[in-house]
Amino acid sequence: MNLNDPPPAIRVADLAKEVKSGETPLVILDAVSFSVAPGEAIAIVGASGSGKTTLLGLLAGLDRPSRGEVWLHGEALGALDEDARAALRGRLLGFVFQSFQLLPALTALENVMLPLELAGRPDAETAARDWLERVGLGARLGHTPKQLSGGEQQRVALARAFAGDPAMLFADEPTGNLDGATGAEVAELMFRLNRERGTTLVLVTHDLSLAARCQRRLRLAGGRLVADEPVASGS
């Protein structure tokens, strides 16, 4: 690395995850190492069961590795207890999931406001309204998730993720539950917001057209990182 380069947003060294399965441990991830520069967009791809979602959970500190280490903005997750990892997530990360993860009893506005309120933001309602306007849901603030389409629910999830002004966005199959046209609209919105905010994007997807919009593609097979390559057509 050039001395003038900024430190990595994410650094992963010799990461492994095993779980007990009878006599022999089941290896989910093995010897995974890579770095992600600030503002870079990477796609993690691979067949079902290759370890993609497990890797994302380890990067976010939602699970602990069996071996190895993850650093987020220079901070080693292994040195932090559960509360400190949660605080780091709240400070650095935004999340978008395939299943939206909205609270069903809350309105769109309340779903976006909640993490801001938990973070002590005095402008929680103003910021939530602004972000819902940005994702095209200004007229749907008072609707609960069941009153929204799948695409609208994922737009709420994007507003919630970006409203906290995260340094990094972790997206796990963000278009997986959407039809093709709606998924394309949500993907376009996600990449546009990501470019505007300059966040680091880590995208887990089986959709190669989505992966092609990132700058790099990391391919997992059998829990190992088998390719780390630039994407020529990335945006």
Which descriptors apply to this entry?
alpha/beta; 235 residues; six-stranded mixed beta sheet; 7 helices; four-stranded antiparallel beta sheet
Describe the structure in your own words:
The structure is a single chain. The chain is α/β, with parallel strands linked by helices and 235 residues long. The protein has seven helices and ten strands. Strands 6-7-8-3-9-10 form a six-stranded mixed β-sheet. Strands 2-1-4-5 form a four-stranded antiparallel β-sheet, covered by helices on one side. The longest helix is centred in the last third of the chain and has 18 residues. The protein is globular, with a radius of gyration of 18 Å. The two termini are 24 Å apart. The mean pLDDT is 92.
- The dominant shape is globular
Number of strands: 10
The main sheet comes to:
6 strands, mixed
Distance between the termini: 24 Å
By DSSP (H or I, 4+ residues per run), the number of helices equals: 7
Fold blueprint:
Elements (H helix, E strand, L loop, with lengths): L9 E10 L6 E11 L4 E5 L6 H8 L7 E6 L2 E2 L5 H11 E5 L10 H11 L5 H11 L15 H14 L4 E5 L7 H18 L2 E5 L3 H4 L4 E6 L2 E7 L5
Parallel strand pairs: 3-8, 3-9, 6-7, 7-8
Antiparallel strand pairs: 1-2, 1-4, 4-5, 9-10
Helix pairs in contact: 3-4, 3-5, 4-5, 5-6
